[in-house]
Automatic annotation (TrEMBL):
Region (Disordered): 1-31
GO terms (BP aspect): DNA replication; maintenance of mitotic sister chromatid cohesion
InterPro entries: Dcc1
Protein name per UniProt: Sister chromatid cohesion protein DCC1
Coiled-coil segments: none
UniProt similarity note: Belongs to the DCC1 family.
Keyword vocabulary terms for this entry: DNA replication
Length: 442
């Protein structure tokens, strides 16, 4: 008989199922042990980073040497770079040679512009538009050129770090454009000065609005100091004794001119013999500070040669100011009605010439055959160049260059800049005599 047949059977394993809780408990006992082992083991990169952070030069050199076993001249002096505290306060700007020649040594450069406006780089006398480009690439700038470390003469010297500073970290790149020949910031300038206009009645002078000095204006207006001074020359703005600028309202100027014309008609004053004391007598002290009188003599008069402090009122300036006073209130009226009003307020003996309307008013023929006059003083026209052109083309469809020029004297700093703008941005047509007329924006 086969002996295997008589072999006792192996007792079967009990098929008792372990509880889920017990199974999970056993698993919990195993898994954490494996995790603990992984946590305790640090990678070479982690060890290297910690050693660099802790300035452990020997350990860093040892780790790096293992990766370069055939480099017998591996330097023990390693370069470590770090950022300067002000490293994010810089912007990388590129510019043409024609632009960089405008900058001089020790000249102060200022970037001006509010968050919702385009940036402008300003010197004391000029402004340069900036084109800013947000870049996904970070550019690091260093004053010291990054070179290979110089090995110490002592071959047995210990491993060490040399430190180099990163002076700037740039996310935004910019381009400095050619200097601007247009006073783009004049709109913002006028808005600020209009906040607290000088009114005739002292009680109406608001103390709520802010009065700005030059340092205040430079914070908000994208223009150089010289450009702001040029813009103010074309505006009815007076610099007061405290250094602040105040805009003379239309009503205020109307009161000044009314008292002046009355004094001229009553022979209290003469056009050719004007001075501070005589104007002080006709303009009340409570309404007219001394600074206003000095401003009037400087802007509206010419000094008589060899006559001390005597001045002559410029007749053309006075007539244009009176036209502006009449037209500002109406904006548009029949020319016959305008003539009736202006003849009543003009000083005796003065006559209006066609030249007095240049850059101030335009005429329009009405269906009933009567001519009307339209107020177009640059002071009250849109300050954006394109908007001003659109407004003028709604008044007339065809303009010659010299007819347009007086309406833009406050925005363009030179005749060449204005001519160049017209050629680049305006459509034109020729009449039968080959005369060129501008007819709209491109």
């Amino acid at each position: 008989m086969n002996k295997f047949l008589n072999r006792p059977l192996t007792p079967k394993r009990s098929k008792v199922q372990r509880s889920i809780g017990e199974s999970e408990k056993n698993q919990e006992n195993v898994i954490p042990a494996q995790k603990s082992k992984k946590i305790d083991e640090k990678s070479s990169n982690e060890i290297l980073h910690e050693a660099i952070f802790d300035n452990e030069a020997e350990l860093v050199h040892q780790i790096l040497s293992k990766n370069r076993p055939f480099d017998q001249n591996f330097s023990k002096t390693m370069t470590k770079m770090r950022f300067a505290p002000q490293s994010e306060e810089y912007m990388l700007l590129s510019c043409d040679e024609s632009v960089i020649s405008q900058f001089v040594e020790n000249q102060r450069l200022t970037i001006r512009g509010e968050p919702n406006a385009d940036a402008v780089l300003c010197t004391e006398t000029q402004s340069f538009p900036l084109k800013i480009v947000e870049s996904a690439t970070t550019v690091l700038l260093m004053k010291e050129m990054l070179k290979a470390p110089v090995e110490a003469e002592n071959e047995t010297a210990a491993a060490n770090f040399e430190f180099r500073k990163i002076d700037a970290k740039c996310y935004a790149l910019g381009e400095i454009c050619a200097k601007s020949e247009i006073l783009h910031g004049i709109s913002r300038l006028k808005d600020l000065l209009h906040e607290n206009e000088l009114e005739w009645v002292v009680a109406e002078n608001s103390k709520n609005g802010k009065i700005y000095g030059m340092s205040d204006l430079l914070k908000y207006v994208q223009m150089s100091r010289k450009e702001i001074e040029i813009a103010i020359e074309d505006l009815p703005v007076v610099k007061m004794s405290n250094g602040k600028y105040q805009y003379l309202s239309h009503k205020y100027r109307g009161e000044l001119q009314s008292l002046l014309v009355e004094a001229l008609d009553n022979d209290e004053l003469t056009m050719e013999n004007m001075n501070f004391e005589k104007l002080r007598q006709i303009w009340p002290v409570g309404n007219v500070p001394n600074e206003i009188i000095h401003w009037f003599l400087e802007r509206k008069c010419v000094k008589n040669s060899g006559s001390g402090e005597n001045f002559t009122i410029v007749e053309d300036e006075l007539i244009r100011d009176l036209i502006k006073i009449v037209m500002y209130a109406k904006n548009k009226m029949g020319f016959r009605h305008f003539q009736e009003i202006i003849e009543k307020i003009l000083p005796f003996g003065m006559k209006i010439q066609e030249s007095h309307f240049a850059g101030l008013c335009e005429f329009e023929d009405t269906p009933n055959g009567e001519k009307s006059i339209i107020y177009l003083s640059p002071e009250d026209l849109p300050d954006a160049i394109s908007d001003r052109f659109r407004h003028l083309f709604t008044i007339r469809k065809l303009w010659q260059m010299e007819e347009l020029r007086p309406y833009f004297g406050d925005l363009f700093k030179s005749r060449v800049a204005f001519d160049k703008y017209l050629v680049q941005h305006l459509e034109y047509t020729l009449d039968q005599q080959n005369q060129l007329f501008y007819c709209g924006l491109k």
